[in-house]
Write a structure and sequence with these properties.
about 200 residues, elongated, two-stranded antiparallel ribbon, about 40% helix, alpha/beta
Length: about 200
């Protein structure tokens, strides 16, 4: 019932039909990854691959290899050529979560992908191309990160073509009872019990 959440859903469904880059902002737990799945499932890429990448969970020394791939022998432990996500998900959608945690050198490589679709594997000199739709998300203030020199301003504007801000539940309390009803139905089915409801408290 929340108007602000409804607007976000409408925007997501409208932008899904395009190839525009989307930035989803909001606190942890508001459903940023769920929205990325909504956008992908309503897009022309829905039958192609979708991958969610938590940039904050990948060690700084390996994130370039994870995203763009590497050549055999390019670093210790690189025993074979490896495709990165941008190569293996060609034609599909990549959801980049926690982009504020991304190292600055990775941001430079990512900017090139967004601008031209071009990337280079770690340890290679050969330029490759990819056709990937990027949806990004952050739970921190990226503008503050820009002021601190931790995030590239040009990359921010590349991501921020369409911005979806997802409000926390405390800002849309009119949805609480809808969620309670949904949970009651789920628990009733799962535990095969008739749960009548909850007290207001």
């Amino acid at each position: 019932r929340s108007e602000v959440y409804d607007r976000a859903l409408n925007t997501a469904s409208r932008v899904a039909a395009t190839d525009l880059t989307v930035l989803i902002t909001g606190e942890s737990g508001v459903g940023k990854e769920v929205f990325s799945h909504i956008i992908h499932s309503l897009s022309s890429r829905k039958h192609n691959k979708f991958i969610a990448v938590n940039c904050g969970a990948i060690p700084q020394g390996t994130i370039n290899s994870e995203l763009f791939g590497h050549e055999k022998g390019s670093f210790t432990g690189a025993t074979a050529d490896r495709k990165g996500y941008f190569e293996s998900v060609d034609g599909g959608t990549i959801f980049l979560d926690e982009i504020g945690e991304m190292p600055l050198d990775t941001q430079s490589y990512l900017l090139r992908v967004l601008e031209s679709g071009e990337f280079i594997r770690v340890g290679s000199s050969q330029t490759q191309t990819t056709d990937v739709r990027v949806i990004a998300a952050s739970n921190i203030d990226l503008l503050n990160h820009i002021r601190q020199g931790k995030f590239r301003e040009d990359l921010y504007f590349r991501f921020n073509v369409v911005c979806l801000r997802l409000p926390p539940l405390r800002e849309r309390q009119e949805d609480i009872f809808l969620l309670i009803d949904t949970f009651i139905q789920e628990f009733s089915r799962k535990h095969k019990k008739k749960i009548k409801g909850l007290t207001p408290e």
